[in-house]
Write a structure and sequence with these properties.
heterodimer; A: 55 residues; mainly alpha; 1 helix; B: 372 residues; two-stranded antiparallel sheet
Chain lengths: 55, 372
C-alpha cells in the first residue's frame, strides 16, 4: 500500500471514529438540561461557559 | 460526477446540522452551521494564521499579517458595541496577564510552526485530509486536557489581573485596537520594504504584481462568522477548549476520575465533561469546522497531498502535545486568545500575539531543520 492510499484510509477511518465516538458519547452521557434559547443575543441569559479564556 | 459529489457534501452537512439540532437543540445546530462556514472559509481561502506568520518571518511577505490585522479590526468593530450593550448575555475573551500567558504563548508560537498549523489550522487541515494533522490532533487533545488540568497551578505562579479596555467604552477600546493593528501592519510593510531594498525576494504585493485576494476575502468572511458566533453562542469563537474536552472525555473513558481535579472537577468544566459533547459550544463549532474544510477541499475534486516523512510525523506529534498544553497555559490559541482576545479589547490578546510571534521565529528555524 503506497503512502497516498494509506493516508486516504487513515482519513476515512478518522471520520468513522469521529462519528462513532460522538454517537457513543451522546448515548452514554447524562443529557438532561434546559435547552438555551436559539440565540444568546437578546435572550437575557448568561453564556454557558467553557471557553479557551478560562471561563 | 462532480455534481454528485457536491450534492453529497451538501446533504452530509445538512444531515449533520439536523442531527446536532435533534440531539442538542437549535442553538447547537446553528453553531454547527457556523462551524461549517468557518471550515469552508479557512480551507477555501487557505487562511492560515501559521502560514501568514511564516510567510513574513521567512520572506517578509506581509499579506497574511495584514489580512489578520484586518480580521481583528473588523471583528472588533462588529462585536465591541454588542459586548458593551449586552453585558452578561454576551461575554468577551478576557484573561489575566500571567506568567503562564507569557510562557505558554511563546511555546505555542514555536510549536505551531513545527506542527504546520495552529488550533484552527490543525482542524481544517484534518478536514482537508492533510496527513500530518492525524499525527498532531490526538497529541493536541491529550496536551490540551493535561494543560487545562494544570492551568490553575500555572495561574497561581502570579501575574497581573485582566486588562479589559472595554471598561473605557467601546469607542476607546476600538480606537486602541485599530491603532494597534495599524501599527503592526505598518511595521510589517516597513520590514518588507527593507527586505526588498536589501535585495531579498519580493512578495506579490511588494513586487507590485497583484494582491492575493484570498487573504482579504477570508478576513471579511471570518469577521462576519465571528460576529455571528458571538451573537448565537454568547461567547467568542474558540478552538482549544473543545479539543481539551475531547481529551478529557477519552481519558475519563479509560478510567480517570475528574473529581478533585482543579480544572475538570470544577464547574462549568465538570458540567461540560458530564454532558454529551454536542452540548459544548466549542466542540460543536469544531466538528462543523472539520466538516466544512472537508467539503471545501473536495468541492472541486479529490484532495491532493503528499505523504510526510516519518520524521515530520514524529515532530508533528510532539509539537501537537506542546501546542495543546501551552494553549491552556496561555488561555487559548490563535483563535481563542489572539483573535478573541484582541477583538474583545483584552490586553492579554496583544501579549499573546507578541510572545507567540517571537516563538514562531524560533519555530520556523526548528521547522527548517526538521524538514531538511
Amino acid at each position: 500500500m503506497n503512502g497516498r492510499r494509506f493516508f486516504s484510509l487513515i482519513s476515512n477511518l478518522f471520520w468513522v471514529l469521529v462519528v462513532a465516538l460522538i454517537a457513543l458519547d451522546t448515548a452514554s452521557s447524562k443529557g438532561s438540561r434546559v435547552e438555551p434559547p436559539p440565540i444568546a443575543f437578546g435572550s437575557g441569559q448568561a453564556a454557558s461557559g467553557g471557553h479557551c479564556s478560562g471561563r | 460526477m462532480r455534481f454528485l459529489m457536491r450534492l453529497l457534501l451538501v446533504a452530509g452537512g445538512l444531515g449533520g446540522i439536523f442531527a446536532v439540532t435533534l440531539a442538542a437543540g437549535l442553538r447547537q445546530g446553528l453553531l454547527a452551521l457556523l462551524g461549517i462556514g468557518f471550515g469552508a472559509v479557512l480551507q477555501g481561502a487557505r487562511f492560515g494564521f501559521t502560514t501568514g506568520w511564516r510567510d513574513y518571518i521567512e520572506r517578509r511577505d506581509p499579506q497574511g499579517l495584514w489580512a489578520q490585522m484586518l480580521l481583528l479590526v473588523l471583528a472588533a468593530a462588529f462585536t465591541l458595541p454588542l459586548l458593551a450593550s449586552h453585558p452578561g448575555e454576551l461575554v468577551g475573551a478576557v484573561a489575566p496577564l500571567t506568567i503562564s500567558l507569557v510562557l505558554g504563548a511563546f511555546l505555542f508560537g514555536a510549536a505551531m510552526q513545527l506542527a504546520d498549523g495552529c488550533g484552527s489550522g490543525t482542524l481544517y487541515k484534518a478536514g482537508g485530509g492533510a496527513p500530518i494533522s492525524f499525527a498532531v490532533l490526538p497529541t493536541f487533545a491529550f496536551g490540551s486536557f493535561l494543560g487545562a488540568s494544570h492551568q490553575p497551578a500555572w495561574i497561581a505562579l502570579g501575574g497581573l489581573p485582566p486588562v479589559d479596555l472595554l471598561r473605557y467604552g467601546w469607542p476607546v477600546a476600538l480606537g486602541i485596537t485599530v491603532v494597534g493593528c495599524g501599527l503592526v501592519s505598518w511595521l510589517a510593510a516597513r520590514g518588507a520594504q527593507r527586505h526588498r531594498a536589501a535585495g531579498g525576494q519580493t512578495s506579490n504585493i511588494t513586487g507590485g504584481t497583484g494582491w492575493s485576494r484570498r487573504w482579504w476575502i477570508g478576513a471579511l468572511l471570518l469577521a462576519a462568522l465571528y460576529t455571528a458566533h458571538l451573537v448565537v453562542a454568547g461567547q467568542p469563537w474558540g478552538i482549544v477548549y473543545g479539543i481539551g474536552l475531547w481529551g478529557a472525555k477519552l481519558v475519563s473513558a479509560v478510567g480517570w476520575n475528574p473529581a478533585g481535579d482543579p480544572f475538570w472537577g470544577a464547574d462549568p468544566h465538570a458540567l461540560r465533561l458530564a454532558e454529551p459533547v454536542l452540548f459544548d459550544v466549542t466542540s460543536v463549532t469544531n466538528f462543523g469546522l472539520i466538516y466544512g474544510a472537508l467539503a471545501a477541499s473536495r468541492w472541486n475534486g479529490p484532495a491532493d497531498f503528499r505523504a510526510p516523512t516519518a520524521k515530520r510525523l514524529i515532530a508533528g506529534a510532539l509539537a501537537g502535545l506542546v501546542m495543546g498544553y501551552s494553549a491552556r497555559m496561555a488561555f487559548g490559541c490563535n483563535v481563542g486568545a489572539f483573535l478573541g482576545g484582541i477583538a474583545s479589547a483584552s490586553m492579554h490578546g496583544w501579549v499573546w500575539f507578541a510572545l507567540a510571534f517571537v516563538g514562531s521565529m524560533v519555530g520556523v528555524r526548528l521547522r527548517q531543520r526538521v524538514s531538511a
